[in-house]
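Entry 12.
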Amino acid sequence: MPRDYSGAVSSTQIGAVAESLVATRLMVASAGRLSPYRPLADDAGIDILIHDKHTGCAVPLQIKSRTVTLKRHPNTVHFQVRCATFQSSRTALLLAVLLDPATMTERRAWLIPMNRLESVCRRGKSNLIMRSSIQMDSKDRYTQFRCADLSQVADRIIAQIDR
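Predicted 3D structure (tokens):
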């Protein structure tokens, strides 16, 4: 019996799309300076290594993606990082990205240093929980990490590398 594929895109597929989107957009936005690579295994929660062609440095990046906001709060998006895979690091970054479900393009993004994640996220039973406004002018604990798009994310990654 043939499988029915008329349902929605799975969360695993959305994650794969987000990782590919981030990788390609960072390459383009940085004019080729940033070159993303996938680790053979992401058991440490790192989805992509961003190699900087100018300095030779590599920045580990964990990517979390969503396509929907909260039903009761349509300007708020919810992300979770499993404590089991979380590792605080001076160089690693978390990129949380809200994708438009129809076009699979970014609506908003947040770039947070992993060594700051525990101090800004709420700790749940087994997850670090992030709930942020998608409004660029909102003032919440994630304001300093909010990016309008992946071009701004690329600029911030380059700025961190160049420090």
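Annotation: The longest strand covers residues 58-66. The beta strands are 34-37, 48-52, 58-66, 76-82, 93-99, 106-113, 122-123, 127-133, 146-147.
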